[in-house]
Design a protein that fits this description.
Among the domains are: 41-104, Tetratricopeptide repeat domain (Serine Threonine Protein Phosphatase 5, Tetratricopeptide repeat), CATH 1.25.40.10; 123-195, Serine Threonine Protein Phosphatase 5, Tetratricopeptide repeat. The termini are far apart. By secondary structure, it is mainly α. It is elongated, with a radius of gyration of 18 Å. The protein has helices at 2-17, 35-51, 55-68, 73-85, 89-102, 107-119, 123-136, 141-153, 157-170, 175-196. It has ten helices and no strands. It holds the Pfam family TPR_19. The chain crosses the membrane at residues 205-223. TPR repeats lie at residues 141-174. Keywords: Membrane, Repeat, TPR repeat, Transmembrane, Transmembrane helix.
C-alpha cells in the first residue's frame, strides 16, 4: 500500500510540474540585431510549443535557435530539461555541463539539475542541487516543490513538510505544494500507525522508473520583443 502510494505521489507531482506557469525574462528588440533576433524568435516559438505539449516541435525550434546562437544558455537549459523529460538523461547532463562551463552555478542550471537528478533517482544529489539553487534565489517555488519531492522519495517526510510549507509561503494555493504537504503528513501518520502496531517500516523504494515528468516550465522563458 505504501509503495503504491509513493509511486502515485511522485508520478503526479513531477508530471504536473511541467505544466506550471511560465516565467518571463524581458529582452528588447532594440538591443538585438541579426541572428540574435532570429534566435530569440525561435526560442519563443519553442516556449509556445513546449507549453502546448509539443516537445518535438519545441526541440526543433530550440535547435534552430542554437544553430544561430550556440551560447544561448536559456535555450540550452530548456533543451536539457526537455531531453530529460523524454528520458535522454545522459544527453541532458552533457548539455548542462556545457552550460555550467559558461554560466557556473546559474540558478536555472541548478534547478534543472535538480529535476534531472530526481528523474534518474539520485535524490540526495537532487536535494544538494536544490539547496544550491535556493541559496541563490529562495523564491523559486518549483525548486522548493522538487526539494520536497526528493525528501519524500527518501522517506524524509518531516523535511518534505518543511519544503512544502516554504513553497506555500510563496503561493498559498499552489496545488503541487499542497499535494506534497498532504502526502508527507499522510506518510507520517502511516508510519506512526505501523510503529504503534509493532510493524516495521520498509525503506522507501527507488521510483525513478515511474518518474515521467520533470521541472521544465519555469525554464521556458519568453524573450519579449
Amino acid at each position: 500500500m505504501i509503495k503504491e502510494f509513493l509511486k502515485a505521489h511522485l508520478l503526479f507531482t513531477l508530471s504536473i510540474l511541467f505544466f506550471m506557469g511560465l516565467f518571463f525574462t524581458p529582452a528588447y528588440a532594440g538591443q538585438m540585431e541579426g541572428p540574435l533576433v532570429d534566435a530569440v524568435s525561435y526560442y519563443n516559438q519553442a516556449v509556445d510549443a513546449a507549453s502546448q505539449g509539443s516537445d518535438q516541435m519545441a526541440m526543433d525550434f530550440l535547435d534552430k535557435a542554437l544553430s544561430l546562437q550556440p551560447d544561448f544558455y536559456l535555450a540550452q537549459i530548456t533543451k536539457a530539461g526537455l531531453l530529460s523529460k523524454n528520458g535522454n538523461n545522459s544527453e541532458a547532463m552533457q548539455l548542462l555541463e556545457d552550460v555550467n562551463k559558461t554560466h557556473p552555478d546559474n540558478k536555472y542550471y541548478l534547478a534543472t539539475m535538480t529535476s534531472v537528478f530526481i528523474n534518474t533517482g539520485q535524490f540526495e544529489k537532487a536535494i544538494t542541487s536544490a539547496d544550491a539553487a535556493l541559496l541563490k534565489d529562495p523564491t523559486l517555488i518549483e525548486v522548493w516543490i522538487l526539494k520536497g519531492t526528493a525528501h519524500g522519495a527518501l522517506g524524509e517526510f518531516e523535511e518534505e513538510i518543511i519544503a512544502s510549507e516554504q513553497a506555500l509561503k510563496i503561493d498559498p494555493e499552489n496545488i503541487n505544494a499542497i499535494s506534497n504537504l498532504n502526502y508527507a503528513r499522510e506518510m507520517i501518520t502511516v508510519k506512526q500507525n505501523k510503529t504503534h502496531q509493532g510493524g516495521v517500516e520498509t525503506t522507501p523504494i527507488s521510483v525513478f522508473f515511474v518518474l515521467t515528468g520533470v521541472l521544465v516550465s519555469f525554464l521556458l522563458f519568453r524573450l519579449r520583443d
